[in-house]
Amino acid sequence: MKLSCIDIGTNSIRLMIADFDGSKFSNVHKELEMTRIGYGVNETKLLDVNRMKLSAEVVETYYKKSIIAGAEHVFMMATSAVRDAVNADVFIEMVMAKTGQLIDVISGELEAEVGFLGVLLGNDRPEDKLLIIDIGGGSTELIVGDLDGIQFSKSINIGAVRLTGAYVYNDPVKPEEVVVMKSVITEHIEAVVSEISAFKIDSAIGIGGTATTIATMVHSVEHYSRESVHQLKVDQEELAQITTQLLELNVEDKKKIIGLEAKRADIILAGSLILEELLLKLKIQAYSVSDYDNLEGYTAYQYKRL
């Protein structure tokens, strides 16, 4: 069955069109457009009107591409920014007017569940107890589980866009801004680190824009593809080197780094700081990237309900 999934995140809108037989994906096509619909939501609790219009246009384009490709069902989900905004109904109505489709604004708990499910679909070590780290634009999902299911999950309201919008005012970022961000990160993750530390983690898996981008920077991946990115490994030392490099550069110089998408250059430092603090506090030496994530997970989740 050919299916489509559109993921409306805080930073980007992503599309996946693929064939799915209930257990395996094939003929997978993915693309994304960064619209930053969630920029400023942390401070105002409002989605910006122009960003909503742009995002609705991208969703409409992706919906039309899905229909042209022959998708039998088009699933649409929205996460942190739309979930937190008091005017989310305006955006939902915009998309409905353009596509006739109702967006599923999923909870942080369901976001964790479908992220976990997506990783399992691409994991070749089913016996491992996994820690999945999904640092998005507006929130970070942390999930512990294995083939028997999820044992722990938590959605934290810090993400690359949210942190940048709230605490970064200079380019390059000033040391005192980094100190504040690290303090905020520590405050948000302290309790969850204590809970996760009670588990014996075999493997840490990174999904989402931050974890994937750090890996493509470390490994100098010029052209993104599932084959070039899936299961790339990044250790603490490599992550620390990337963070140090980002601290020294302005946005224009960051755009020149191989593996860093230009539109992500202004927010990648905040994401890197979250990832670094998590690995350090959890005493995890490295993580691996999964290109299977909540797009696959949400598609599989909805497939079961058809």
Automatic annotation (TrEMBL):
Protein name from the UniProt record: Ppx/GppA family phosphatase
CDD domains referenced in this protein's UniProt entry, alphabetically: ASKHA_NBD_AaPPX-GppA_MtPPX2-like
Pfam families reported in the protein's UniProt record: Ppx-GppA (PF02541)
Gene3D superfamilies given in the database record: 3.30.420.40, Exopolyphosphatase. Domain 2
Domain of life from the UniProt record: Bacteria
Natural source organism: Fusibacter bizertensis
Residues covered by the Ppx/GppA phosphatase N-terminal domain: 17-297
Family (UniProt): Belongs to the GppA/Ppx family.
